[in-house]
Amino acid sequence: MNVDKGYVDIPVPEGIDLRAEIIRLKRERDAVIMAHYYQRQEIQELADHIGDSLALAQLAAKTTASVIVLCGVHFMGETAKILCPDKTVIVPDINAGCSLADSCPADEFARFVADHPDHTVVSYVNTSAAVKALTDVVVTSGNARQIVESLPEDAKIIFGPDRNLGNYISATTGRDMLLWDGACHVHEQFSLSRLLELKRQYPDAKVLVHPECPKPVRMIADKIGSTQALLNYAVSDDANEFIVATESGILFEMQRRCPEKTFIPAPPEDGTCACNECNFMKLITLEKLYNSLVYMAPEIEVDSETARLAVRPINRMLEISHNLGLI
Ligand code: 13P
Ligand code: SF4
Question: Which atom of ligand 2 is nearest to the CA of 247?
Answer without folding.
Answer: 5
